[in-house]
Amino acid sequence: MAWIILLLLVMALLLLRQSLVLVLAVATAYVHLFIAKSQVEFLIQDFWFTVDREVLLSIPLFMLAGNIMSRGSIARRLIDFMQVFTSPLPGGMGIACVLSCAAFAAINGSSIVTMLAIGSIMYPALLARGYDKNYALGSVASAGTLGIIIPPSIPLILYGIMTERNIAELFVAGVGPGLLLTLMFIVYAVIINFNKERTKFSLQEAIRSFFGGAFALLLPLIMIGGIYIGWFSPTESAAVALVYALFIEFFVHREENAKEAPAGAGFGGKVMHYLGTRQMKPRHLIEVILETTKLLATLLPLLCVAGSLNTILDHSGAPKQMVEALTGQIQDRWVLMFLINVLLLIVGCLMDVGSAILILAPLLEPLAVAKGFDPIHFGIIMIANLEIGYLTPPVGLNLIVAMAAFKEPFGRICRACIPFVIIMLVWLLIVCVYPPLSLYLVGK
Description:
Mean pLDDT: 79
Oligomer: single chain
Number of helices: 22
Order of helices and strands: HHHHHHHHHHHHHHHHHHHHHH
Shape: globular
Radius of gyration: 22 Å
Distance between the termini: 44 Å
Structural class: mainly alpha
Strand content: under 5%
Helix content: over 70%
Number of strands: 0
Low-confidence stretches: 256-277
């Protein structure tokens, strides 16, 4: 009876359109008081135990580093480097968009930051080069999702916290699926834009862009390589990313705004100079810190409440009972995995990635492990499902942000992303049925 009342209470709050933090807080307090027969003091203690973890420091550090790099010149330099080497290829500008998103994703760990930083430059560049508007919209919105599967990834950090799995292993496991999705987006860019105009390769431009973007290109190698080799933990890699970004923006990439491209600049150079170069200044740093603090303020309360709910449910044995009941009903492991995927795809349409992980990861992971799936592999499967949710209405964050950033109707952006969603569904199937793609670099 108590569980039925809890369900009705949650449904009533959702119908009244209350915030997710309030819904979770009420549910957690109810479970503490009326189901687990606990005390309110333990609720506060659970809040503290949830946030009293060193790995949590990596989230604000990665967020701050990503915002600094998107406000500075690192994103522009990455694009400049990519387009010089891809412009002679079929669909070269589309390939440059995908590769730039992949490289920037390997620095900041956020889908939204990746899409805005790269898309604000690549979207007008693609249109100026004669690419179809639907392709341009779909490309920047979809390639931005690489930010939550290519390490470092904030959703992977959240998953590791909620399931108590090794975050470094999750990071390494995301490399293979992330590279595969990047390759699939590149193949589509070549096929759909095969007849677009190409430019000749210029060694002079290549050398210029290489030296201009060398420091930006070095950062993902340092971070991912350092985690894989064991030089530093995910939290330490976030600190390295932040210090490195500050050093590069303040002491290496010290640029003045330019209105005209230098003589001899190719198409890519002209586009970059037309859009203007950006110099990070101390007043910009204060603004970025305030923006990051606001974003963090929406995440930490959710994490506290979800962590407390997870603790009390685990103490009551409810997840274990659910696992035993469902595993007894569903004998085939692949049937269970199919149902989990369907559930996550639906949840991705209705809930943001962070909230979905905080609520569902502690419940679904034991189910998958009970049926013989590796917990690290399942973590990648869950993030892959929710990554598709960034592109599915009505709560696809990349769709909503793209609508505001590029001033296009929501329906048009949804239609533009359909081919990319189909590609990602095929990719999800491969990730599910071929565990070595995720586990080979982990050594499992």
